[in-house]
Amino acid sequence: MRVEVGAWRRRTGVALGVAGMAVPLTLGVGAGTAQAAASCTAGTGPYQKQVESFLGRPVDGKQSPADCTAIRSFQRTHGITPAAGYAGPLTWRTMDTILKQRAAGKNPNKAGACPVNKGRIACVDLTRQLSWVQDGRKLVYGPVPVRTGRDGAETRTGAKKVYHRSLKHWSTIYKVWMPYSQFFDGGQAFHATDKSMYNPPGSGGCVNMRPADAKAYWNLLRNGDDVFVYGRKPGT
């Protein structure tokens, strides 16, 4: 998980100064820890208006208890910590990625960045954290959100090919199952995960997918099929 701190810490200090909504930076144990975990920041974040707009809240640039509750719910869903309801950079970056994915609609390759002269090919756009399968200019499946490599373990860009498939692969590095694995570059593969596609900081280099999407890719692709990875993941 990625911890969203920085400006939040600088603005809040040791406590937020609002009764019943203090967020100490150093958590204690027992009841103190439980109280901190249940607290909510009253601080206005640097992306307050953008976050309010995304969540359908009144856009006034001021943090309200209802704003905080909505922001915290989003943060908890996607594993952004601390889930204190602060409209910080990581929260907004995640929302901005979702907005870009929505804007792609059913024409994710409008800019022509993924080759259309390869026949069937799986495209991965790191910038928008999107993937789809196309055949020439025809969209076959997707686009779907994906979770790619974190900073320092980026999913490598360029033209690749599926070279190994394993329906229920066991990762000896991370000690986890990788269902519907389709390897296309060294140890990097498409595979299913139960994590949110927006869970920071990202994968160890693989292209994580929701189980239904990973299964669809498994049924669509074969060894030797083309994969093209391009762009740059936000935050890397």
Automatic annotation (TrEMBL):
<dbReference type="GO" id="GO:0018104">
    <property type="term" value="P:peptidoglycan-protein cross-linking"/>
</dbReference>
<dbReference type="InterPro" id="IPR036365">
    <property type="entry name" value="PGBD-like_sf"/>
</dbReference>
<feature type="signal peptide">
    <location>
        <begin position="1"/>
        <end position="36"/>
    </location>
</feature>
<keyword id="KW-0961">Cell wall biogenesis/degradation</keyword>
<dbReference type="Pfam" id="PF03734">
    <property type="entry name" value="YkuD"/>
</dbReference>
<keyword id="KW-0732">Signal</keyword>
<feature type="active site" description="Nucleophile">
    <location>
        <position position="206"/>
    </location>
</feature>
<dbReference type="InterPro" id="IPR038063">
    <property type="entry name" value="Transpep_catalytic_dom"/>
</dbReference>
<dbReference type="GO" id="GO:0071972">
    <property type="term" value="F:peptidoglycan L,D-transpeptidase activity"/>
</dbReference>
<dbReference type="GO" id="GO:0005576">
    <property type="term" value="C:extracellular region"/>
</dbReference>
<dbReference type="InterPro" id="IPR050979">
    <property type="entry name" value="LD-transpeptidase"/>
</dbReference>
<keyword id="KW-0133">Cell shape</keyword>
<protein>
    <recommendedName>
        <fullName>L,D-TPase catalytic domain-containing protein</fullName>
    </recommendedName>
</protein>
<keyword id="KW-0808">Transferase</keyword>
<dbReference type="GO" id="GO:0008360">
    <property type="term" value="P:regulation of cell shape"/>
</dbReference>
<dbReference type="InterPro" id="IPR036366">
    <property type="entry name" value="PGBDSf"/>
</dbReference>
<feature type="domain" description="L,D-TPase catalytic">
    <location>
        <begin position="119"/>
        <end position="230"/>
    </location>
</feature>
<dbReference type="GO" id="GO:0071555">
    <property type="term" value="P:cell wall organization"/>
</dbReference>
<dbReference type="InterPro" id="IPR005490">
    <property type="entry name" value="LD_TPept_cat_dom"/>
</dbReference>
<comment type="pathway">
    <text>Cell wall biogenesis; peptidoglycan biosynthesis.</text>
</comment>
<feature type="active site" description="Proton donor/acceptor">
    <location>
        <position position="191"/>
    </location>
</feature>
<dbReference type="GO" id="GO:0016740">
    <property type="term" value="F:transferase activity"/>
</dbReference>
<keyword id="KW-0573">Peptidoglycan synthesis</keyword>
